[in-house]
Design goal:
Elements: H1 18-24, H2 28-50, H3 58-77, H4 82-97, H5 100-125, H6 136-158, H7 166-171, H8 179-187, H9 200-207, H10 211-218, H11 235-254, H12 267-272, H13 275-289, H14 291-306, E1 313-314, E2 320-321, H15 330-334, H16 339-344, H17 348-359, H18 366-378, H19 382-405, H20 413-440, H21 443-452, H22 456-467, H23 481-493
Antiparallel strand pairs: 1-2
Helix pairs in contact: 2-3, 2-14, 3-8, 4-5, 4-6, 5-6, 6-17, 11-14, 13-20, 17-18, 18-19, 19-20, 19-22, 20-21
């Protein structure tokens, strides 16, 4: 989408940094975003050192996190930030007045409904879809948090423990949060701008100083070689993630603008470039589109870690892990040999949210409903729906191939290597084919792109599903604990 004259300096938030925006030639909304995140990083270090659990009460920590979060929202989005506060307060009313059996349903409908209305209004009513960092991003994160808390509150108060899966039981919330706790969870300065979504129990444990201890107990720290309870520091993890952030920023400034996705549907390019070369260029432009996501998500992760939030335990080598809130695993993304592996390592916290509020609770067609919810959550651009509907088809086809064919290639090392190489190439090209409409947004360029690619992934996926029918999905992960335990006992008795 072409920017009109003067667009680089458009923003609904503060214009304080307008001179810097003009000097660098970077849109002011993006300058405000980065400035807030960098200030949040400094505030997070100060928060951990001077307002740690041993220096300040939970109420003070909640209040500080909330007030700074509100300030960042107003600085970035101006009066549009009222949408964030309105949705938060509406759902606080629902949480306190709705019956527990329906609290997750009402919260979901109101949060997703309001988000969808905002998606529609900012694009078609206010013609506001041009800014890359507008209020819809934080609204999407808040929607995730509202629905996550509502489901976990429903699990903790409205259901019996034996009805829950192990994960649902671990994350269940037993009491309604206070207003301060609720506001802090949804609006804290570490995640208000770029997320990620986290679980309510983890966040409260972090504020109260139980976060690290709780995670160490989960992994049994004594078996990891420690004779006393360790006190892990996030500094190393933060520095490492800031290095990734810097590299991603450099790649964004040098590659992303030089390899635009729109070029793959340029008439001259299509006329002169053979099909295989177009496939190769599609891979290149898709790679060039990734650094901005790597930058934003890794910086957000570093902000949370700097505050002392995001500790996930100890790995098999005894190294402290700070990836509880990580939104991506770059190595696994770039080396993925299956569509499923790629999805599981991209936007990890959103995938976890989709699993907890939709996939694990959907009575029918969990895969399809999860993809549809993901598209609706992202927005109303037609390209999103082309991407996620195509993703359903390719996911089913790749699952069928893996179930029917993979075991034939595990008998020897050369066969396994050949299988991995072929599946890596196919996976990367399938992802590129699937996400191109997500970047193009509109119907016309999407159809033009598919035609230029001869709809090859759609056709191949349909042929695979006709030749290799999908086996019924096992829903063992969705079984309550007591049922799973009973099945385990029965299998041992046989």
């Amino acid at each position: 989408m072409a920017e009109p004259p003067g667009a680089p300096h458009r923003t609904t938030g503060s214009t304080l940094l307008h001179p810097l925006s003009a000097l660098l030639g970077i849109p002011l909304d993006q300058i405000n975003f980065v400035a807030c995140q960098l200030f949040a990083l400094l505030a997070a270090f100060w928060f951990r050192i001077y307002l740690g659990p041993s220096h300040a009460s939970s109420a003070v920590r909640h209040a500080f996190a909330t007030l700074f979060g509100i300030y960042f929202a107003v600085f970035c989005f101006g009066w549009y930030s009222i949408h964030l506060f309105l949705l938060v307060m509406m759902n606080y009313g629902i949480m306190n007045m709705a019956s527990i059996p329906n609290i997750h349903r009402y919260s979901f409908v109101v949060a997703m409904g309001y988000l969808t209305l905002c998606h529609i209004s900012r694009i078609y009513i206010f013609h506001y879809g041009i800014l890359t960092t507008d209020f819809s991003g934080p609204l999407m994160i808040i929607t995730q948090k509202i629905t996550t808390l509502a489901c976990q509150l429903h699990d903790g108060i409205g259901r019996q423990a034996e009805e829950l899966t192990a994960e649902q039981n671990r994350l269940a919330v037993k009491t309604r949060p206070s207003l301060l706790e609720y506001l802090s969870y949804l609006l804290n300065f570490m995640s208000i701008i770029a997320g990620p979504c986290s679980n309510y129990k983890d966040y409260i444990a972090f504020i109260e100083g139980r976060h690290v201890h709780m995670k160490l107990l989960e992994v049994n720290w004594k078996q990891k070689g420690y004779d006393r309870l360790p006190d892990p520091s996030p500094t190393g993890a933060v520095m490492y993630k800031l290095c990734i952030t810097l590299v991603s920023l450099i790649l964004f400034l040098t590659l992303t603008k030089n390899f635009p996705m729109a070029y793959i549907i340029d008439n001259e390019f299509l006329d002169k470039t053979p099909f295989l070369s177009r496939l190769g260029y599609l891979y290149v432009v898709t790679q060039a589109a990734k650094p901005k996501y790597y930058f934003a998500w890794t910086l957000a992760d570093a902000v949370n870690n700097a505050a002392g939030y995001g500790f996930s335990g100890v790995d098999e080598r005894g190294t402290f892990r700070w990836d509880l809130l990580s939104n991506l695993n770059i190595w696994n993304i770039e080396t993925a040999t299956s569509f499923k592996m790629y999805i599981e390592n991209w936007n990890i916290q959103t995938a976890a949210w989709l699993k907890r509020v939709c996939y694990d609770r959907a009575p029918w067609y969990p895969t399809a409903l999860t993809f549809i919810l993901s598209a609706l959550w992202h927005g109303i651009y037609p390209g999103y729906y082309f991407t996620f509907l195509t993703g359903i088809l390719i996911t089913l086809a790749s699952r069928a191939i893996r179930n029917h064919c993979r075991h034939y290639f595990l008998s020897s090392v050369p066969l396994k290597i050949a299988y991995d190489v072929v599946t890596w190439v196919v996976t990367q090209l399938a992802v590129c084919y699937t996400v191109a409409p997500f970047v193009m947004l509109a119907v016309e360029p999407t159809i033009k792109f598919y035609k230029s690619m001869y709809f090859h992934m759609h056709i191949l996926s349909i042929l695979v599903l006709l030749v290799l029918p999908v086996r019924p999905q096992a829903h063992s992960i969705r079984k309550p604990q007591n049922e799973a335990m009973q099945n385990s006992v029965k299998s041992k008795d046989k």
